[in-house]
Amino acid sequence: MAAIYSLYIINKSGGLIFYKDCGTKGRMDTNDSLRVASLWHSMHAISQQLSPVNGCSGIELLEADTFDLHCFQSLPGTKFFVVCEPGTPHMESLLRYIYELYTDYVLKNPFYEIEMPIRCELFDINLTQAVQSDRVALLGR
Amino acid sequence: MQFFGGSEISPSPPVPTASGNNAHMMYVFNRNGICLLYKEWNRPLHTLNPQQDHKLMFGLLFSLKSLTAKMDPVNADKGNLGVPQLPGQGCSFHSFRTNTYKLSFMETPSGIKIILVTHPKTGDLRESLKYIYSLYVEYVVKNPIYSPGSPIKSELFNTALDQYVRSIS
């Protein structure tokens, strides 16, 4: 069964606004996740500079030895990225679905300040459901 | 693994994945970040001068490697982010893809980094990079007048490489 290890959401200036861990081994504290998120933000920007042709919008998929990282950048510049087992399918649709949840439960929340860390209970609940693998399989259909 | 000890070039190079040349460019770096070889086949966009471009590419790979080593979800004992690591140590990566290109990356135990930038739809190029490494060993490392760490000027290597890259992608 393919697994999702973690999910990050970073705002347009590279600050981590949401982090969810679903079974990463080893130490990964708040400081580490913040650093990793802003490092990813800069790597994403550099990859656009190095493109051999025009119109590059940054890394979409990074294939490492033990995981895959899928990244989705929304039009306002918020980046969603998910770390999963190598070869997990339907991650693009999952990211799009998470973006939908973000617009519905975070952006439409009147108490949410834009670009700030996300603390919305409804978003958490729906996200947990979405990340469960049977739900991921359903999105692929 | 073939590239650790093979003394002759592997007899059958990996099967081509598609036809037509869609390789954009290729870099070879040594462990100190010196660009030993840069080749381009199809690169309409140059944003920086060559020297800065090489530096930026090496920096990107270096940082991505420390990122993947830190992110590794399977290994429990990983150090802090940015701890220097030897080639082959920690979780590395073999490719990334954007909407306009795909970058395939291989690092050998001696710290030579081979980077091939191709069309985003290209398949897995790990075997091809190993073959390119075996070409490097055969034509560059075994060349008695080549001094390690200097840019590669071997004619034989260049033609063999050019021919091979045109055939794979």
Automatic annotation (TrEMBL), chain A:
Question: What is the annotated localization of this protein?
Answer: Endoplasmic reticulum; Golgi apparatus, cis-Golgi network; Golgi apparatus
The main place the protein resides is endoplasmic reticulum
The terms describing its cellular component in GO are: endoplasmic reticulum; Golgi apparatus; TRAPP complex
One Pfam family named in its UniProt record = Sybindin
**InterPro entries in the record:** Longin-like_dom_sf, TRAPPC
Q: Is the Transport keyword given for this protein?
A: yes
Q: What GO terms in the biological process aspect are recorded for it?
A: endoplasmic reticulum to Golgi vesicle-mediated transport
Enumerate the UniProt keywords alphabetically. Answer: Endoplasmic reticulum, ER-Golgi transport, Golgi apparatus, Transport
Which SMART domains does the entry mention?
Sybindin (SM01399)
Q: Does the keyword Endoplasmic reticulum apply?
A: yes
Describe the family membership recorded for this protein in Swiss-Prot or TrEMBL.
Belongs to the TRAPP small subunits family. TRAPPC4 subfamily.
- PANTHER family according to UniProt: TRAFFICKING PROTEIN PARTICLE COMPLEX SUBUNIT, TRAFFICKING PROTEIN PARTICLE COMPLEX SUBUNIT 4
Describe the protein's quaternary organization and the partners it interacts with.
Part of the multisubunit transport protein particle (TRAPP) complex.
Q: Report the protein name in the record.
A: Trafficking protein particle complex subunit
Automatic annotation (TrEMBL), chain B:
Asked if Iron is a keyword of the record, the answer is no
Q: Which GO terms fall under biological process for this protein? A: endoplasmic reticulum to Golgi vesicle-mediated transport
Q: What is its main location?
A: endoplasmic reticulum
Tell me which species this is from.
Microthlaspi erraticum
**One GO CC term, this protein:** endoplasmic reticulum
Concerning InterPro entries, the annotation shows: Longin-like_dom_sf, TRAPPC
Question: Record's CDD domains?
Answer: TRAPPC1_MUM2
Self-association or partners: how does it assemble?
Part of the multisubunit transport protein particle (TRAPP) complex.
Q: What is this protein called?
A: Trafficking protein particle complex subunit
The UniProt keywords, alphabetically, are: Endoplasmic reticulum, ER-Golgi transport, Golgi apparatus, Transport
Q: Return the PANTHER family for the record.
A: TRAFFICKING PROTEIN PARTICLE COMPLEX SUBUNIT, TRAFFICKING PROTEIN PARTICLE COMPLEX SUBUNIT 1
Recall the taxonomic lineage recorded for the source organism: Eukaryota, Viridiplantae, Streptophyta, Embryophyta, Tracheophyta
Q: Which family does it belong to?
A: Belongs to the TRAPP small subunits family. BET5 subfamily.
Q: Which SMART domains match?
A: Sybindin (SM01399)
Which cell locations does it reside in? Endoplasmic reticulum; Golgi apparatus, cis-Golgi network
